[in-house]
Structure formats: structure tokens, C-alpha cells
Amino acid sequence: MIDVKNIYYAYHQDDKYAVKDVSFHIESGEIFGFLGPSGAGKSTTQGILAGLLELQKGEIVIDGQSRKGMPDKAFFNRIGVGFEIPNVYKKLTGLDNLKFHARLYDRETEDPMKILDWVGLADSAKIKAGSYSKGMKQRLGFARSMLNKPDIWFLDEPTMGLDPNTANSIKKLVKRKQAEGTTIFLTTHNMFVADELCDRVGFIVDGKIEALDTPKNLKLKYGQPSVTVEHLVDGVLKAETFGMAGDDKAKLQDFIGKHDVKTIHSGEPSLEEIFVKLTGRVLE
Ligand SMILES: Nc1ncnc2c1ncn2[C@@H]1O[C@H](COP(=O)(O)OP(=O)(O)OP(=O)(O)O)[C@@H](O)[C@H]1O
Ligand SMILES: [Mg+2]
Q1: pTM higher than 0.70 for the full model?
Q2: CA–CA separation, 225 and 269 (whole Å)
Q3: pLDDT one-digit tens code per residue, 77-91
């Protein structure tokens, strides 16, 4: 659905690129994620895709049509953009914020009250957004981004700074929209969000994609699966971990046969471990 071909972006007119030769493809109806540390180029890429930053170099093709030849109005009508820092009008109530934005679209929009309810803001609908907490503003921004029932939804760190319950309800909404056919581009530096939500993940560091695959494949390809066996020794629970390569399996079988085994857990590496291994960087 979306083909991104060799895009570059420099904030200043120099060769310090925030995004360097980035190419990827997003399938229709998939959640495609960018995982990377601060300053990696995630928001810059989203800005270019959403048309907020100029496409300086490279090409973006949507449904076979070059983005460059596409009228902005038609494109903006079909996308939703959730910003890293939510843009809310502080003097308007939450409800009026949404009503105002709904008028900017030339297509059917959601009932503002309904989406405020989805994001847990129904009770605060008539309160000025300026007095909302940080998390409430973020949820309002998130609600705004889905007002026009977007076909393509860009979400920049959608759960950052939210408490676990609220983050979960946001993740559920993202999944629900995907089930309804929405194509989603999501950026995060949270490996749990990437693992849980994304069909495919691109690792991005210093403006470059270092790896790209499903979370499962990345773990299978680059991680070392292991099995941890808990066993009793003189009434004390101990743990032993085995790899799965070479003669490790035989060692595991031998160990199980000779010990008073209580639990066996298979462990798969986390996306963060793979990220560190492939990029030499941590997700901060
Ligand atoms: N408005 C700007 N002017 C100049 N440089 C910028 C600007 N915005 C971002 N940059 C630089 O571009 C690079 C990529 O930034 P970007 O915001 O895309 O990263 P990010 O992956 O979204 O990071 P974060 O996780 O902190 O949101 C960084 O080196 C950053 O300092
Ligand atoms: Mg960012």
C-alpha cells in the first residue's frame, strides 16, 4: 500500500541527514512499526510520510500513485496523525477541540463524544483542554487523530507517558482499528509496544534502518532461545539455563533425567536484546 523509496531528510541545508536512504513497504491493513532510540529519525520519517515535512529526496508511492502528484487535501482527508506532543487548543473543551477539527475534513467523521468515550475522556468532555493532565491531552490528541476514520493512521509514541491501564486501552483501540482495515505506521522506543502491536518492525538508528522483519522472525534469526530448569537441591530451589544449539539439547535431557525438576520455562530473547545485538545501541 505504501512504498517508501530511498528517502533522505536534512533539517539544515547540509549533509547531516536525520533520515538517510530509508526504504520500506507497508502492507494494507498492517501495523508497521519503527523502533529506535531518541534522535533515531522516527518522528522525522513520520513527518515526511504524513506530508508535514517536505520530501527532499526519494519517493513515496501510495496505492501505486506517487505522493508528489497527489493533491494534499485528498491525502489529508484519508490520513490520521497522532503527534508526539499533542496539539490541543487549550481554551476549548475536549469536545469542542474535536468538533473544530471534525469541520476541517471533507468526509464523514466520527461522533466526537463517541471517541472521547473510547479514550476515557467522556467525563471530561466539557472541561477546557488547558486544564487536562499530560496524559489526558495525549489521549485527546490520539482521539483527534482518528476523527476522520483514517485509512492510514500515523501514531508517534502513542502510549508514551500513559499509565499501564490507559496504555492498554489505547493499544486495544489500535488493534481494533487494524481489524477494521486501517493501515498503521507507528513509532516507538518501547520494545513491548513494538512486540505487542506491530506485524513488522524496522530497527532505526541514526537515520538508517538496520533490520526489518516480524518481531518473531527477528528473534528467531538473531536471538538465542533458551530453556531454564528449576530444580530442588536439598530443599532449595535452583535454576539452570540451557541453550538450544549443538549438544545443549542432549545436556538438557540428561539434566532433567538426573534432577528433581519443578518447572521448565522456555525463554525467547526480547526485542531489545536483539536491538542491542544488531545496532550496538540501547533503546533510550
Ligand atoms: N526541528 C529540528 N531541527 C533540527 N534538527 C532536528 C529537528 N527535529 C529533529 N532533529 C534532529 O533530527 C534527528 C532525528 O530526530 P527525530 O525527532 O526524528 O528522532 P526520533 O527518533 O523521533 O527521537 P525521539 O525518540 O526522541 O522522539 C535528531 O538528531 C534530532 O536532533
Ligand atoms: Mg520522536
Answers
A1: yes
A2: 6
A3: 999 999 988 889 999
